[in-house]
Amino acid sequence: MERMCGEDASFIHLERMDEPCHTLKVVVLDTEERGHPVSLDEVRAAIDRYLPLYPRARQRVVFAPSFRGLPFWVDDPDFDLDLHLREQVLPAPGGRRELDAACSTVASARMDLHRPLWDATLLHGLEGGRQAVVFRLHHSVSDGMGVVRLLERVTTPEPGAPEPPPPDTFARSPIPSARELRRAALAGVPRTLSAAGSLLGHDWRHRKAIEAEHKAVRERDDLYANKLAVPYTWLNVRFGTSRLCATGSLPLADFKRVKERAGATLNGVLLAVLGGALRAECEQRGEGLDADIVCGLGMVGDASDSTRMWGNNLTNLFISLHTTEPDPVERLRKVTRSASDTVALRRQVTEGRSAAFPDVAARFGPTMGRMLAYRVDHGLGNLSAGNVPGPRTARYLGDVRVADFYSFAVLVLGTGMNVTAYSYDGEMKIGVLVAPEVHRQPELFVERLRSSLAELADRTADQPITARRS
Q1: Are residues 151 and 265 in the same domain?
Q2: Is this prediction's pTM over 0.85?
């Protein structure tokens, strides 16, 4: 029995408020070298072998009576691996469109919160004899960085088996009784009170920095540390639980070339590319060019030597994409400046606050956020994005090469689009997740991203530009 941390618990509370919070991780397999396809039995055997590495895969979520803030992870005594596995044959020709449609179906299905929060679907029939495994994983289990570390742990840079996992010590213990859960919850009350005291003390000690942050936000219309100050756009319509997915690969070398010429970071270039694609979308729609679109960028707070494979350690930064700026080079400068200053403002006041706040507001934070997501004049953000550094070279699952790796995150609190980028084997792998009420053809938006990157690379080819690093 393990008490859930506040950040993980917030996704459970959003799910219970009808905000689907599962992510997708899509592993495309190239079986040409081995000469025959992967079977569901092989997938079952591989997952079963590595279950000892990942205790969350056999744990479920339970709440203590009268203590609904932070639930518990407990071992599921009825865990059955077969209930988490399925397979499907894609219709011909098995191209990107068919893969995206299958991912959309998986993304739109709700998860059963009374079982371990993951499943896997083996897809047959991809063009070129390829296959894919679509892992559906609840965001309370892990963020994107944890999944990348798991991928690196169970794969190798050359064909062959990775280091054996530890011995399996899983015991089918019964679900703790209500009394045991309540006693454990009571034991955690001092922790919550301590977190609340730490939060109040931190804000008092840093009150001058907080005041300076608010002053900077008031004086600069491209800073959005106040998360309720984001103007609504076409991305913020009310939407249901259906989801549409689109995948794409962009040249990582182009991102790096622009990065070097701009003196920026990959995050800065990605945001500028995203801003260009959104501007083109606004122009095609004939709306939304009177205010800059604001992106909530999820930043992982782990140290470089962290080995964490589950849990969440994210900080959201709200950054202006300057979509009202028509010139792509000038937009890159402005986005880089906005990102740099937003990071600096956040660092002044969030160190010491980020760990305490979720534990205090795990239950009420999501509730208040949902209530404020559709205010009359302002929202919590227009869209969200993430950029996760993945393996630089191709990886192997046993004797099967991982050809592609895509990720789809979540849509919450009135933001109808999420763009997740994973760098893998020289490509920037893009996963676009949208609500159909916001965009009916997300594959077209992937092409807008491609055009935006090409335009930025072309415009900066002959002229180095100077932009402050974020």
Answers
A1: no
A2: yes
